[in-house]
Amino acid sequence: MARSRLRGRALRELSSTALVATLIISSVSTPPANASVSAGELVIPGSAWAPPDAVNRAPVGGPPPQGAPRQEVNPQAQRHDAEVARDWCGNSDYGTKRDYPLERFPISDRSELLVNTANGNVVITARDLTIKGTGQDLSLSHVFNSTESFDRSAAFDEKWRLTTGADVHLDLSFSNGVVLRGPSGYCVMFDKNGDGSFRPAPGLDARLRRLDNGGYEVTWYNTNERWTFNAEGWLLSQADRNGNTNSLRYFGNGDLASITDSQGRVTTFRYDDGGRLTAIVDPTGTVAASYAYQDGRLASYTDRAGDRTTLEWDTGTGNLLALTDPSRGRYEFMSTEYGRITELATPGPNGPARTRFDYDSQDTYDVDKTIRTDANGHQTIYEYDRQGRQMKATDALGHSRSQTWTANSDIAVTTDGLNNSTTYRYDELNNLISTQLPTGATTSVGYTDAAHPHLPTTVTDPQGNRLSREYDDAGNLTKIHSDGLDVDLWVHTYHQPHGTLASRKNGNGHTTRFEYDERGNLTAEIPPAPMGATRYTYDSLSRITSVTDGRGVRIDYAYDKLDRVVAISHDGRVLQTMDYDGIGNLTERAVPGVTTTFRWTKTAAASQPTRVERRDGTSTEVVTYGYDPVGNLTTLADGGGTTRYTYDKAYRLTALADPFGQTTTFAYDDTDRRTRTTFPGAGTQHNGYDNSGRRTSLRVTNTAGTELFAATYSYTRGDGSDSDQIQSTTIAGVTTNYTYDSLRRVTRAGSVTFGYDNANNMTNRAGTTFTINPANQFTQVGDQVNEFDGAGNLVGSQNPISSFTYSATNQMLEGYLNGTRIFDATYDTVDQTQRRRITETHNGVTTQHVFQQTALGLTQVIDNGYRTSYTRDPDGTLITEKAADGTRYNLITDHQGSVLALLDSGGNLAATYRYDTYGAVHTNGSAAEDNHLRWLGQYQLRGGLHLLGHRYYNPSFGRFTQPDPTKQEPNPYTYANNDPINNSDPTGAAVNSCLQSNLGAISVAGGSMISMVTFVTAVTTVSTLGVGLAIGGFGVAIVGAVANTPPQEACG
């Protein structure tokens, strides 16, 4: 499954960061006046938009008209019965559903194109409006289905539909069941039981029931969201588990008239004389989207910023011929008479990139196999069962992976290219109850709450450690209990009537409280003292306009009409500005004194950067990127020179030609795991894996085959059973055994022991005690007494005497030790991800580090004027280095990206690096100081701090020096959930924990708004190209739903 994550990965990462910023921070405050602007100061861009304070709260329209919503005509039959309905639904495969095999082609940050490779249906989704609500947002899109065939939808022409209103309805005309037409156009059948109840629709994870008033309700299992329909099938409302509701009203002819969102604001809809939708008007009276028609067909649509997408049609067949996005990217479609795609041309770096789809049957309802030929001419073969679910994928090298399905369209078994299978089991209600790895480790989930039969009440890991969960009547999470420790880890209470999180008490009994305005917007988060409260203000569309942290420092945010962050300000001074193109790509980012510009190209994978230019008034730096038509990175040129990348037909990297004159080659097994990295003239790194895909060995040999270095990793417990945590390692001949407690925290590593409290704070490390205050701050470590500010930043200590200062956006700026300045830093963004310069003094020696980031991570470091250059593969893994004195090294890395050794060009071990459990580095070898990209492949300062993305990490404490910016971690300072052996957090913002992936974000469940809002303090950069991002190409992938489990390779 690893190859599926390579396609367009850099832009997904970059775009997702921008999207997080816009969704989390949401819109613009009234821009502060800019009376006089001196040289070097920034102004809020003209694209900033402040919505009017007054909003429409007067809905128009009323109940839907008598009679059923407009029904699509089944072209295959004229009679309406359950058999026909099931056949129609089973074969239409319109829209998107979790079991559909969909290939994704992003168009913009608001639109994407998907191809159902089983039937050739093209789905285009375009987001028109999103308004943050209480409990649930109001999100409106329009969706295209190329193979859909009916007279016209309720809102548009025959192939476009709105994701709400009459286009989402129940068809009650069948005698033995009810058909639901979903927002994207999908069709599912709820068969009727003899007693009048309904059986679940396969693949939907929802139930249908008849209400006492004659209407119907669809309830979604995982969220308890409820969609209500009247007795004739009209959609009336959508409510979350707490009853926060978006309510619909209609005109007398059945057109959607207005939607009242969960905060009482009204969005309205306009139509032409033919009943076609012409505009969506948001609650402030601003046109959020408009639509134009030609010859009865949708010809263009325009977003709130005035950016237009145009459409071209074949007037004979009614098929879509072309779509041109707001940045003039052109997508062309060659289709059969009935709309099945045969060739798709997407914008490419050197002209159109053409992807062809060949089907083994001309009947769209009877496809067993599809051959996809990509823009490079490489073929992938997809095979399907009779329901159109993908069963197998074979890449251009003949390597296959497969999967089987349950009757409910859940994944049952996945099998990799080496015939290793992961098994998923479900109960009679189709809840996932266990996942078993090929090596035997099994995670199980229990469902014992009769009132909420689809909400997990227990999760048990392969070692038998169990966490229990409890819920209130609405299904909000109220408690997480550790059975092993017999302690409540989290206890939640909720405000009514909105069901918003009121308080959260941790395992130590300390409580964080949350306050809201009357509409349900979070206004304050009040943690235990001495941390200060964080406070929020909003505009009329519930977009955050300011955040005031626990120090009392207020940051203001400005956004464009599409909710993209365009400025960040403090005390009337603009700290950062951002500009975007018409499809949401960041084109310019500026902080006082530094401007960075971005150019982009389209590939089949995504929009990807081609040129990033940094200017600071005295110098200009440029990084350029090249790609093949499907999005594989082919060149990267930075201050160290040009690196070239070569791939095989399955898009696995086979060669990396660095700027230093060396070409490193790579080999893989049949399931795409890298088995060999060969450094010419020096030697080879050999990687071994177990059947679950976890790396279990690493060997380094010279060209003569002599072993120079070795490491092994074992997941086998003392009783011989398989675990999902490493039980022992042997690295360079030194064996370390590990033990863990019932919360999966490492308690012993060799002879070193660790202790923790019930709130996940480390309390003892190798005999050194930690004193923890109610805010989870480590106020004393041994004899060192620490001090924190109201925002949670470490600001000083006694024994030794130190002090640190921070910017308004919580960047560490200066540090002093015993009165001597030991640290100062500048940044290219308002967060800490883009460190530009750090000057540190360690043991009396002052070093100035200048960093150059790329989309793959840090690649250039200039220390006191001397440059060290690195190359990375498209995943960001370090490969080679050219030191400041010109010496070349090959980097030996482990499964977490940590550098274990340097292999010189003559095949000698020039240095080795040994890490203790929490990342303290012990070096050996004369060349060890030539490299400071070490633990996790990230930079380590001479003073010991690791630069981990959003935060600084102190391995001596085993903790971050600042709280988690996302507020998603169980503890704001803890590193990797206190299991650095199996988990890592190279970005300082997210732990790749297997348990947390399976269980969910346990610290904020039931109060998701908290995590969404508070990350604003970290994602104020709309980030950049750097800090471990990766670029890759397109590869074969099994498409479909793997139920609630992370890929195992991401967990160790």
What does this protein look like?
With 1052 residues, the protein is mostly beta strands. The protein has a domain of 223 residues. The protein contains 4 helices and 79 strands. The protein has a 68-stranded antiparallel sheet, covered by helices on one side. A hairpin with a 5-residue loop joins β20 and β21. The chain is globular, with a radius of gyration of 29 Å. The N terminus and C terminus are likely disordered.
Taking the alpha carbons of the first and last residues, their distance comes to 15 Å
Q: Uncertain segments of ≥5 residues (pLDDT<50)?
A: 1-39, 73-80, 993-1052
Question: Biggest sheet: strands, sense, closure?
Answer: 68 strands, antiparallel
- Please state the CA-atom Rg, rounded to the nearest Å: 29 Å
- Beta-strand fraction estimate: 35-45%
Mean pLDDT: 89
**Count of β-strands:** 79
Structural class: mainly beta
The shape, in one word, is globular
Number of helices: 4
Instruction: Report helical residue fraction.
Output: under 10%
Topology readout:
Blueprint: H1 9-25, H2 82-92, E1 102-106, E2 111-116, E3 122-131, E4 138-145, E5 160-162, E6 169-171, E7 177-181, E8 187-191, E9 206-210, E10 216-220, E11 226-229, E12 235-239, E13 245-250, E14 256-260, E15 266-271, E16 277-281, E17 287-294, E18 297-303, E19 308-313, E20 320-324, E21 330-335, E22 341-346, E23 353-359, E24 369-373, E25 379-384, E26 390-394, E27 400-405, E28 411-415, E29 421-426, E30 432-436, E31 442-446, E32 458-460, E33 466-471, E34 477-482, E35 487-494, E36 501-506, E37 511-516, E38 522-526, E39 534-538, E40 544-548, E41 554-559, E42 565-570, E43 573-580, E44 586-591, E45 594-602, E46 607-615, E47 620-627, E48 633-638, E49 641-647, E50 653-657, E51 663-668, E52 674-679, E53 683-689, E54 695-702, E55 707-714, E56 728-731, E57 734-740, E58 746-749, E59 752-756, E60 762-765, E61 768-772, E62 778-781, E63 784-788, E64 794-798, E65 802-806, E66 812-817, E67 820-827, E68 835-842, E69 845-854, E70 857-863, E71 866-872, E72 878-882, E73 888-893, E74 899-904, E75 909-915, E76 921-924, E77 946-948, E78 951-954, ...
Antiparallel strand pairs: 1-2, 2-3, 3-4, 4-5, 6-7, 7-8, 9-10, 10-11, 11-12, 12-13, 13-14, 14-15, 15-16, 16-17, 17-18, 18-19, 19-20, 20-21, 21-22, 22-23, 23-24, 24-25, 25-26, 26-27, 27-28, 28-29, 29-30, 30-31, 31-32, 32-33, 33-34, 34-35, 35-36, 36-37, 37-38, 38-39, 39-40, 40-41, 41-42, 42-43, ...
